Amino acid sequence: MKNIRAVRRRFLTRSIFRIAVALATFAVGATLVAAQTQPAAAPGTASVATSDDYVHFSLERGKINLGFLAGGGTGLGKSDNTQFLYAGGRVGIVLTHDHLPGLLRGNFEWDFDVLPMYAVFPPNDGVWGGSIRPVIWKWNFTHGRKIAPYFAAEGGIVFTRDNVPPGDTSQVNFTPGAAFGANFFSKNRRSFFFEGNLGHMSNASLGNHNPGYNVTFMVTAGFSFFKH
After folding, report:
1. For 170-194, how does the pLDDT look when each residue is reduced to its tens digit (9 = 90+)?
2. Minimal CA–CA distance to 69: which of 85, 46, 47?
């Protein structure tokens, strides 16, 4: 059984590392592609949205983001023997019009994740629970027409049936972090999104001990609908 767990940990860690490299490459590529797919406006005129400018029509102020997602990841450093899996839904709203020039042009979106399935796999067991992320403050880069990279600051809470990490810790942990990713619009107001997240998990001394997981890396994939 220990050998099976060791093989599982090595497989998950290597897979997540490869996904991390792919996501980093993808984040840079998405930004460059978004810049190249935006047609230049004629001198002295404002940029006008066209019918295939899915980003403009989907990420307008007041649009509601409804989506579902799934993901997983691993602890890093001394916590690389622990893995995570989660799934749930996302709701959000685009709060502002576009601001800033050029590649930095974008708007502010506030999202909220509800994750009824959140599993933690320490070395010798699995712990089940759920999570909410009430704070996902996202900056959408809206320079492109069909790809919108984004960066987000996040904060959430994880509730588990047993203490995490195992021991005299807590069943409640907090998960601040930062995410980077992109929306890929397949049609107007419909997008697939992929993101990576660097985070931290600890109980903020709610338990007698607070070893936590100093650094975690997660990858998430999902689908979003943007509505009025």
Report:
1. 999 999 999 999 999 988 999 999 9
2. 85
Q: In which element (H, E) is residue 195 found?
A: strand 190-201
Instruction: State which residues form the domain around 86.
Output: 2-38+53-227
Bin 94: left if φ > 0, else alpha if -120 < ψ < 50, else beta.
Answer: beta
137 contact partners, CB below 8 Å, separation of at least 6:
108, 110, 152, 153, 154
* Count of domains forming the chain: 1
CATH number of the domain residue 153 falls in: 2.40.160.20
| 175/7 Cα distance (integer angstroms) | 27
CA-based end-to-end distance of the chain: 52
- Cα separation, 23 vs 29, in Å, equals 9
Beta strand 147-160 pairing with 213-227:
unpaired
